[in-house]
Amino acid sequence: MMYVSQIFWSPLLLLATPTLAALKVASSLEVLEWTPELIAKEDYYNETVSIVNGGIPSLASDPSVDIGANSETQLLRQYASHKNLRTVLTTVEVYYRIVASKKKGIGKLEDLKGKRIGAFPSTSSEYFVQTLLATVGLGPSDYTIVPGGACLKEPCGSGTFPAMLKRGTIDAIGMWEPSVQLGAEAIGDDAIIFEQTIYREIYNLATTAEKLADPAKRREIVAFVAALVKAENVFRTDPEKVVERAAAAVKTNATLFREVWPVHRWTARNPLDIVDVMLEEDKYVARADGRTAMSREVLETIVDRTLLADALKLGEN
């Protein structure tokens, strides 16, 4: 009788034991910024993780997504209507650049007045252009933002910014890499590049308050962030170990990735000034989205610093 009972109950006990699904991360797989996640997955994370195309909006649209990654612009856009979002880590800070055509009479930033600038409206790209050009007294009405497409490697399609710059349908490009570098290469000696330290993209890993409150899911996220910290250290200190794999992950070439590596600050931290940055930037996002800008009190809730602290402790063990 005891033998029959054991056979009967054993499968039920197995069914009653919850099995945690594999960690799921949503990132835009067509930007260089996501590539440390791949190295973390392949080299340092000991559990199962899937990385799918998406971003922070995926946290709201797909309950199976545990982590979403995007710039601070998209984080703000989503947080305005999803106050349960939490940024737990910044993986890279990118100092965007502008490349312009000297043949169009551009030798300094002020010369962009009246020009056509390739950028993505309502994103960190346009915000960067507005922020940088404001330092020389130019407002949004002083130039024209022209939408187009990004390019990851040559040959760039006719609707991409590098091709548009080469044709002369735009006079400059302002955005993330490698489109700026490809634009510079497309026009050769005619290119002038404006580098800056006024604006940096803060590329975030975000999750939800509910997932952070779930002990089992939190442990998974902590473990992945600990792996990501190790991957970031390689990106920062020994990039040759990972540049070929990272370039292949976004279907670009390693030579191009090496060219733009210096404008990327590969890091694993929660910037001390992140709320200050977002407080100012949300004025732009709010105008673009037709809402009221969020207050400092509201924005301070968006940053969770405890998970990274736990990940760093785990990495020490």
Helices and strands in order, then pairings?
Blueprint: H1 2-16, E1 23-27, H2 35-44, E2 49-53, H3 58-61, E3 67-71, H4 72-79, E4 85-94, E5 97-101, E6 116-118, H5 124-134, E7 144-146, H6 161-167, E8 172-175, H7 179-187, E9 191-194, E10 201-208, H8 209-213, H9 215-237, H10 243-249, H11 254-260, E11 264-269, H12 274-289, H13 296-299, H14 306-316
Parallel strand pairs: 1-2, 1-3, 6-7, 6-8
Antiparallel strand pairs: 3-10, 4-10, 4-11, 5-8, 5-9
Q: How is this structure best described in words?
A:
- It comes from Xylaria grammica.
- By secondary structure, the protein is of the alpha/beta class.
- The chain folds into two domains: 22-94 and 200-316, 3-Layer(aba) Sandwich (D-Maltodextrin-Binding Protein, domain 2), CATH 3.40.190.10; 97-194, 3-Layer(aba) Sandwich (D-Maltodextrin-Binding Protein, domain 2), CATH 3.40.190.10.
- Helix content is 43%, strand content 18%.
- The chain has helices at 2-16, 35-44, 58-61, 72-79, 124-134, 161-167, 179-187, 209-213, 215-237, 243-249, 254-260, 274-289, 296-299, 306-316; strands at residues 23-27, 49-53, 67-71, 85-94, 97-101, 116-118, 144-146, 172-175, 191-194, 201-208, 264-269.
- The strands form two sheets. The protein has a six-stranded mixed β-sheet with strand order 2-1-3-10-4-11, with helices on both faces. A five-stranded mixed β-sheet has the order 7-6-8-5-9, with helices on both faces.
- Helix 2 (35-44) packs across helix 10 (243-249) and helix 9 (215-237) crosses helix 14.
- The longest helix is centred in the C-terminal third of the chain and has 23 residues, at 215-237.
- It is globular.
- The N and C termini lie far apart (48 Å).
- Mean pLDDT is 93; it is low at 1-19.
